[in-house]
Design goal:
The protein folds into three domains: about 10-145, Galactose-binding domain-like (Jelly Rolls, Sandwich), CATH 2.60.120; about 150-270, Jelly Rolls (Sandwich); about 280-605, Glycosyl hydrolase domain, family 43 (Tachylectin-2, Chain A). Helices cover about 0% and strands about 50% of the residues. The protein has two helices and 46 strands. Strands 1, 2, 3, 4, 6, 11 and 13 form a seven-stranded antiparallel β-sheet that branches. Strands 14, 15, 16, 18, 22 and 24 form a six-stranded antiparallel β-sheet that branches. Strands 17, 19, 20, 21 and 23 form a five-stranded antiparallel β-sheet that branches. The longest helix is centred in the middle third of the chain and has 8 residues, at about 280-290. The relative contact order is 0.09.
Length: about 600
């Protein structure tokens, strides 16, 4: 028989006169049923694993600090080998001696992520609660958490018809005889903590025919797009609806709908996507926008490259953490011969030992021009990535002396400083000179290792600049997408923003960072498709980044906006994790016009 183990778990229970947010969290190694092993990626440096089918965890906790209601169980979990594609985790939940329903789930992620592994209804308190499992080998369990869901009875809605229904959990439900609002709820924010929530509705069709329920979430009275779902079952079923990110503080939350008649709604439930932890930096930026930004800091570049009389405007800057004490910055410099309009740029770099605030410029260009691939004659607007093996990949905008015009090119270096070699032109433009694959950035899916390149293309026909994403099936250094008009690449285009919005005609430069299950993209945008209009910076995210339609924009965009409306004053954002935290760098020529002091940064403050 399994020996009971002593447990000390952390309990977060924020009490108010109305309701409480309740969460219990425990390190898996303190309730281990399997083998405890070291893992530097784990929160406590240790995880629980198994080499054969069996029990990973055996968590016994008292329910006296809990209240009745619906709860979710989460595990911070990962597959422990890239050779394993999936493994089953089978939770078992008991209240006293009573088994509560739970089903096995399939784990497919190799990077640690919080996974909702079970849910249960606690109808009484006082006895011991046990969370255990019987699962396949090949998993690492880092932490466990139990979080109380936020459940709202439908009859608490405003602007709805309440009917008696014995099939409903509380004996009453909300319905309508004409299209309109079934629900208009203001959940008690005392029951919420900052983070991601998923909205569920317990719905039924009153006549067995399909009827549409369209739900929306308004944060600080800014409503999301309506999420629509057809419901035809006459028995009540939980249906997943919208999702939202709660920023905390004084932010208000309102859940409403506009739906067809003949539906019955029993309950609304808000379920956390992950347990409450201090918001990651990127999540905080997505949730709170400018409110998540720390003080603006000037980024200083000291020194002058060889052959130049002075350091010029760095333009787009790409920041990379080289090691524990050194940060690299890559930037462009204009080398245009005096008296000519044939703009020529080269890429340079600098290093910092003060956390990325003050940089010393290296004397020589990273890529000497002209260089390989039929003679690269211009190179600029770079983005650099440090790979797991210590090598560095670069994408940049460049021009060949023949063949490819303003195109996205790639290069690599063994250490980020020396022996940079241009390898490929993954996106080649061959049309009119105004057409380009400009300001590229590159990222990799941490789970699948799929590689992607993004860029911006000006379209003089539609007078828009759009952002594109192309899957690099053969990697960054092989294969090529070639086009001579924007019409040929619309399958790779991000949707253009609606007319009248801050980014209605321009959506181009940026980069992508992975954090806690999501990919976050910062980007610049404008009301004008070239260097005019009002410019700003925004953020979007996705948990399936290869699907362009999955990228959703923050409701708090833009998080930085230029004051003037007559030039591209604010642009080129770069989001990067440094030892001091998560930062967003960007160019702001409005602040110090006519100087080389145009690069600024903000630390993103987690909630």
């Amino acid at each position: 028989m399994k020996k009971y183990m002593v447990l000390i778990a952390s309990l977060l229970c924020l009490q108010t006169a109305q309701a409480a947010f309740t969460q219990l969290t425990v390190e898996a190694e303190s309730v281990a049923g399997g083998t405890i092993t070291s893992d530097a990626r784990a929160s406590g440096g240790s995880v629980v694993s198994r080499s054969a089918d069996g029990i990973y965890v055996w968590w016994l906790t008292d329910t006296s600090t809990m209240s009745t209601g619906s709860y979710s169980v989460y595990a911070r979990i990962a597959l422990n080998s890239r050779s394993i594609s999936q493994a089953s985790f089978g939770p078992a939940i008991f209240y006293g001696t009573t088994s509560l329903p739970a089903s096995a789930i399939t784990v497919t992620n190799h990077e640690y992520a919080w996974v909702r592994v079970a849910s249960f209804d606690l109808t009484q308190i006082g006895s011991q609660l046990r969370v255990s499992d019987w699962s396949q080998p090949g998993l690492n369990i880092d932490k466990l958490a139990i979080v109380k869901d936020v459940t709202i009875e439908a009859e608490l809605a405003t602007s709805a018809t309440i009917v008696t229904d014995a099939a409903a959990s509380g004996g009453r439900a909300v319905t309508r005889s004409t299209p309109g609002n079934y629900s208009w709820w203001l959940p008690a924010t005392s029951e919420l903590q900052p983070g991601d929530y998923i909205v569920y509705g317990l719905l039924a069709s009153s006549d067995g025919a399909a009827h549409n329920f369209g739900e929306s979430v308004a944060l600080d009275d800014v409503a999301s797009e309506i999420f629509s779902v057809n419901v035809s079952s006459t028995g009540y079923q939980w249906v997943q609806l919208n999702s939202f990110v709660y920023a905390g503080g004084a932010q208000t939350v309102r859940i409403g709908d506009y739906s067809t008649e003949k539906l019955k709604l029993d309950k609304i439930r808000l379920v956390r996507r992950t347990p409450y932890e201090r918001m990651s930096g990127a999540q905080a930026l997505y949730a709170a926008g400018s409110a998540a930004l720390g003080a603006r800091e000037q980024v200083v570049f000291n020194g002058v490259p060889n052959g130049l009389s002075a350091l010029k405007d760095p333009g787009r800057v790409s920041i990379v953490q080289a090691n524990a004490t050194t940060t690299y910055a890559y930037f462009r410099q204009e080398l245009t011969p005096p008296g000519t309009s044939n703009y020529v740029y080269q890429i340079y770099m600098a290093s910092s030992t003060d956390g990325g605030k003050t940089f010393t410029v290296f004397p020589n260009a990273v890529i000497q021009l002209p260089t390989a691939l039929g003679s690269v004659i211009k190179a600029y607007d770079q983005q650099v990535t440090k790979k797991a093996d210590g090598s560095y990949y670069m994408v940049f905008e460049g021009v060949l002396s023949s063949g490819c015009n303003f195109s996205s090119m790639s290069a690599s270096s063994p250490d980020g400083v020396n022996n940079w070699v241009v390898k490929n032109v993954p996106v080649c433009t061959t049309g009119v000179s105004s057409l380009g694959a400009s300001v590229p950035n590159y990222y990799t899916d941490v789970e699948t290792n799929a590689e992607y390149i993004q860029w911006g293309t000006i379209d003089d026909t539609t007078k828009t600049t759009r952002r594109y994403q192309y899957p690099l099936a053969n990697g960054l250094f092989q294969g090529q997408l070639s086009f001579s008009s924007a019409a040929q690449i619309q399958a790779y285009a991000f949707p253009q923003a609606a007319a009248g919005t801050w980014e209605s005609n321009n959506n181009s430069a940026g980069n992508v960072i992975y954090e806690d299950g999501y990919y976050y993209m910062v980007y610049d945008g404008s009301t004008d498709y070239v260097c005019n209009g009002r410019w700003g910076l925004g953020v979007r995210r996705s948990n399936i980044p290869g699907t362009i339609s999955s990228w959703t924009k923050s409701a708090k965009n833009p998080f930085i906006t230029a004051v003037k409306t007559d030039s591209c004053w604010v642009q080129y954002p770069d989001i990067v994790r440094l030892p001091g935290g998560l930062y967003v760098y960007y160019q702001n020529t409005e602040a110090n016009y006519g100087t080389n002091m145009t690069i600024f940064r903000h630390r993103i403050i987690p909630n």
